[in-house]
Amino acid sequence: MFASSVSRYLQPGVIVSAMLRRRVQLNGMSSTTADSGPLSVPEKHGIDILRDPNLNKGMAMTLQERQVVGVHGLLPPNFIDQDLQVKRCLHHIHAKPTDLEKYIYLCSLQDRNERLFFRLLKDHLEELMPIIYTPTVGLACQKYGVLFRRPRGLFITIHDKGHIYDILKNWPVRNVKAVCFTDGERILGLGDQGCQGMGIPVGKLALYTGCAAINPQYCLPVTLDVGTNNQALIDDPMYIGLRHKRVTGKEYDDFIDEFIHACKARYGSAVLMHFEDFGNNNAFRLLSKYLDNTCCFNDDIQGTASVALAGILGSLRITNSKISDHTFVFLGAGEANLGIAQLICLKMTKEGTPEEEARGKIYMLDSRGLLVKSRTNLTEHKLLFAKDMEPCTDLAEVVRRVKPSALIGAAAQPKTFTKEIIEEMSRNNERPVIFALSNPTSKSECSAEEAYKWSNNKAVFASGSPFPKYEQDGHVFEPGQGNNAYIFPAVALGVMCCGSVSIPDDLFLTAAERLSYLVSEKDLEVGRVYPHLSEIQEHSVAVAVAVIERAYELKLATVYPKPENLEEFVRSQLFNTDYPSFIPDTYDYNN
């Protein structure tokens, strides 16, 4: 049998046999589950190996490997390891004149050599995060019709109703564990980008691996194209999506329902469904509809809420106070801020504050002004935070009336945290908390420099997009970026490891609490309320372990018996960016 097995490696056109398949799998996941594996590697040979991003190692192939797999002569006659490949990639990136060109290069690298892409991302995440995600991904979505080269996910349209399961079967990987999907209606702060919103689920799932070492083969990005209300896109000859207005109502709901049920049928009921960048009208109601019967979350609501709360809890370590000591004013009453407000209330109630009192500490403004009970146009989620006050449309006036200790913006209205407002916050508080969370950078409510300068260096500041260090009068400040990447990859890792049947807000509260304790005293000294991104994979493991522990407490986990050492269990599931060997195992008989 051994001779027969080895002879398969010598046949033209064949390279990856069952033995080699197992070796490739072992390098990508834990040995305890390697036989089922995250992917079924096809039997490939020669140039097909180089064309497969899951197998291609480029010039890192040894001479023996090149001869065995039939690519000898197809590569230059030099041999370099992955470390040098990373340096070469960085050289190319630094030579690109714009962030968009850097984004295009990284996309092409992921299309050529997946392990090298994620090794590069892991080693240089702090530098590359703004390229593969916000703010550059916003521009990439706007230009996606021109940038599109090859598929990195599935495009499913409203006209495919009744056939969605068949389309899912076209995806080459069977063992999908997480689906990130958008309908493109509210891409960052850029509005309706239609089909071109695909850049968001692709970028989010890249962060699943870059931040939490989730095997990329487990991840499926999807764009659900129901049309677009962006007339400029409809008129654009380069637009790649459906050229009609958005389908709404029952037809839309039936489409979403079929998609979610098709994913469960194809990938199992435990598949993680990640809602991303849905419009406000749909985001809350769809999450409410599926939250209890599907393993799902909405990152714009729950992920943003969790990372913002983590930053607030970090700020409490600077101000030496409890969350119930604070009064919050929110600019914007969309899914992000409403999610943050709800999670703050949950944290307060767990500390003993009555729910009604907790809501009373939160004031919110939408596009029509302060949420007050006399308004007749409020949704049920907004009505929870409506106050018995006189209407007011001016943020500065609300700040003067309420005298909040924390000001949070996620309305995509740039420069709305004015000098007047920040100075007022500073007069009323020893350390005012100012979070400008809107993305991309061009939509930020204020810059880090403005927050520090106008508050006379008193502000505890965080933002949604990155800002550089700021120095003034001998003080050095390193503004923390409230990036959802601290939360959603870690929560996904924890949920996938323990097989949680749902993802309630309680798990996101647990994630926020754990993340806040990962901020070092050194970080706090320079005003950072989030840990460094360079250590995010370690932090993701810690957050995932906390999430798993809570999932078992809530009886949501389905992996039994419960692992004795959760950290070891999580680490055994992490994706390894090292290249697998293409040389089959051999051995001699023992005489």
Describe the structure.
It contains 27 helices and 14 strands. By secondary structure, it is of the alpha/beta class. The strands form three sheets. It has a seven-stranded mixed beta sheet with strand order 8-7-6-9-10-11-14, sandwiched between helices. The protein has a five-stranded parallel beta sheet with strand order 1-3-2-4-5, with helices on both faces. Helix 22 (448-454) links the parallel strand 10 and strand 11 (460-463). The longest helix has 21 residues, at 299-319.
Annotation keywords:
single chain, 591 residues, alpha/beta, seven-stranded mixed β-sheet, five-stranded parallel β-sheet, 27 helices, 14 strands, disordered N terminus
